[in-house]
Write a structure and sequence with these properties.
Length: 109
């Protein structure tokens, strides 16, 4: 998959990347898929819709069986709290923050 493609139009490779992330939802707790989700979330230059898909997959499908659960949850919480992140991303992250913080024991870190 191409990396850091936010500057490309909302079609083609960008659209395909979002579809791939969405299709991986049932495998979100596998090592390689969890790492992919974390990489997409952490890359500020990544296509925004790919990051939205990653936020949704983390918020809905990642559980205690994921080896990167805490890192993934903390990254979604960081996106929500960050002044540098896009407001759209923060809005999507907000949908899941309360549940993720509770899963982490209420401290979010």
């Amino acid at each position: 998959m191409p990396w850091a493609t936010d500057h490309l139009p909302d079609s083609g490779l960008n659209h395909r990347k979002s579809e791939i992330i969405r299709a991986l939802d049932s495998e979100a707790n596998q090592d390689d898929v969890s790492q992919l989700l974390l990489d997409v979330l952490r890359e500020a230059l990544e296509f925004d819709l790919a990051r939205v898909e990653a936020i949704q997959v983390v918020g809905l499908y990642v559980d205690e069986s994921s080896p990167l659960r805490d890192e993934l949850f903390n990254e979604v919480i960081r996106i929500f709290n960050s002044e540098e992140e896009d407001e759209m991303l923060q809005g999507w992250a907000e949908r899941y923050v309360e549940r993720l913080e509770q899963a982490l024991g209420g401290n979010g870190s």
